[in-house]
Amino acid sequence: MHKRMKIWLGVLCWILFGILLFNVLHKTSIIHSIDSVGFWLVKPVSQLKTKLLTELTFLGDPVTVGILTIGLMLLLWRHRRIADSVWYGMLQFIGYCLVILIKYSVIRPRPTSRLIAVGGYSFPSGHTFSTIILTFTLLAILVPKCKKKSQKILVILCGILWITIIMYSRVYLHAHYLTDVIGAFLLACGWWLLANSQRKTFFYWLQKPIKI
């Protein structure tokens, strides 16, 4: 994808996120409607389903994703892909700082009747954001290595499925509203696209001699 296209799509994602954020802050009726639909879509609730999704959502926990990211960074470093190691680590950890900043600015309470114990604020979903950035990172590394088109499609579909599972689990477990995971999706996609559009510029800036 060309740099200009990344910028336009990234800006579009963040504009949509801004619109959603505005409606969340003002608690508009459309937000209530979307969230109601979200809880309806994840029905029915069952003990087996709750147990399975509780286990799966743990893999999307920002702490778990952070550990996996560090492991991936070390692996890339070992294979002498130092620039990739630094870059993908920065995307994950700086990006999550953005999530925390928004969470504690919006301070949206989590849904009631939660099926798991969870604290903190609701908007946007940290699980969704960190999972998307890690999944995009893995796709960026793995897809170019796929020799067949069918392999590329399979890898991409697996990535989409995993992101969907984490988003679904957060709403099902009443840890988040549907608008929380949608917001995290838009924020993560925008961050990924805009940051990667400036990757060459960033590394050029790092290597540029400092003039005194």
Secondary-structure blueprint:
Blueprint: H1 3-25, H2 29-41, H3 47-58, H4 62-78, H5 82-106, H6 126-142, H7 149-172, H8 178-197, H9 199-207
Describe the protein in words:
The radius of gyration is 18 Å and the shape is globular. It contains 9 helices and no strands. It has one domain (3-199). The protein has 212 residues and is mainly α. The model has no long low-confidence stretch (mean pLDDT 92). α1 (3-25) packs antiparallel against α8 and α6 (126-142) crosses α8. Helices cover 75% and strands 0% of the residues. The chain crosses the membrane at residues 57-77, 86-107, 127-146, 153-171, 177-195. InterPro entries: PAP2/HPO (IPR000326), PAP2/HPO_sf (IPR036938).
Oligomer state of the chains in this structure = single chain
Q: Provide the domain count.
A: 1
Give the strand tally: 0
Percentage of residues in DSSP E strands: under 5%
Q: Tally the helices.
A: 9
Helix residue percentage: over 70%
* SSE sequence, one letter per element: HHHHHHHHH
User: How many angstroms does the end-to-end distance come to?
Assistant: 37 Å
User: Main beta sheet: strand number and arrangement?
Assistant: none
* Anisotropy-based shape: globular
* SSE-based structural type: mainly alpha
Low-confidence spans: pLDDT under 50, at least 5 residues?
none
The mean pLDDT is 92
